[in-house]
Amino acid sequence: MRWCVAVSCLTVALTVGSGAVRACALTIGWEPWAPYQMEGEDGPKGLDIDLVTTIMDRAGCTVTFKTVPWARLLMSIEIGAVDGAMAAAYTDERAAYAHYSAPYRHETVGLMVRADDAGIRGADSLEAMLRDGKVIGLWNDYYYGETVEALRADPALNTGFHVVDHGRTMLVMLSRGRFDATLGDPVADVRSARDLGIGDKVAVHGLTVLETPVHLLLSKASVDADTMARIDAAIESARADGTLEDIVAGYLGR
Fold first, then answer.
1. Using CA atoms in the order 191, 194, 196, 202, what is the torsion angle rounded to 10 degrees?
2. 138 pLDDT above the threshold of 60
3. Domain 107-211, what architecture?
4. Residue 20: what pLDDT?
């Protein structure tokens, strides 16, 4: 386990000309979540991997990607054992221990249902599903937006939500009738269902639960304000010249 004190064990000052340029090396956690984060022959690949590598190059930072399950990754960021995570939606709880970068892409949260469940496909809200006794799967420690948070806080409805440790587990349970619906990114869920051999058993529901910008989430214990400013400037530069849009289009289309 890596511990950082003072400014950062990862940041050193290099003198170039008359000014000081800070060189940084960051460790970013990831786990399989195609097409955003995937295992490749030479290490992780995917949309988020390409976006973050581009951003870090522009910021003058090197990045090492480390496989860490999401719930453990958040705890590691809190204590500075891992520097950051990708594709993080904003929450006040996380902002207490981590910096949020400028947004670098957008994400949609929707629903997956069983392909042969015509009844639930006609439902027009999560609340209606829950009041009808439906069981909805959630990924542990993921943020699904204020609507879901409010429903989970309602004692009359929260028993309809069931938490699991991974999105693929949810999809398998959905296909077997353990869940009536699951929350997640439809692009990733369709890809995962296909890879699991259950692509014909599940389908995307038309309901959009959340549309949100996502950010790099970087530990306040190991990443300083100067590094954050450089990363934010790199994101804005790559957005302004179309680089981020081009990378996204290469995976998801325009």
1. 100
2. yes
3. 3-Layer(aba) Sandwich (3.40)
4. 52
- Name the burial class of residue 254, with classes exposed (0-12), middle (13-18) and buried (19+) by CB atoms within 10 angstroms of its CB: exposed
Helix residue ranges per DSSP H, 60-99: 70-79, 92-95
Same fold, 11-106+213-252 and 107-211: yes
Domain 11-106+213-252, architecture per CATH: 3-Layer(aba) Sandwich (3.40)
Provide the pLDDT for residue 17: 36
- DSSP assignment of 233-254 equals HHHHHHHHTTHHHHHHHHHH--
Nearest to 188 by CA among 98, 251, 236: 251
**For residues 73 and 70, what is the distance between their CA atoms, to the nearest angstrom?**
5
**What are the residue boundaries of the structural domains of the chain, listed by start?**
11-106+213-252, 107-211
- Orientation angle between helical segments 167-175 and 186-195, nearest 10 degrees: 70
Rounded to whole angstroms, the Cα distance separating 100 from 139 reads: 21
pTM for this one? 0.86
Give the pLDDT score at 21.
54
Q: For position 254, what pLDDT does the model report?
A: 61
Largest separation between any pair of C-alpha atoms in the chain = 69
Torsion of CA 210, 169, 219, 28, to 10 degrees: -110
Tokens encoding 234: 């790199």
Give the model confidence (pLDDT) of 83-111 as tens digits: 999 999 999 999 999 999 999 999 999 99
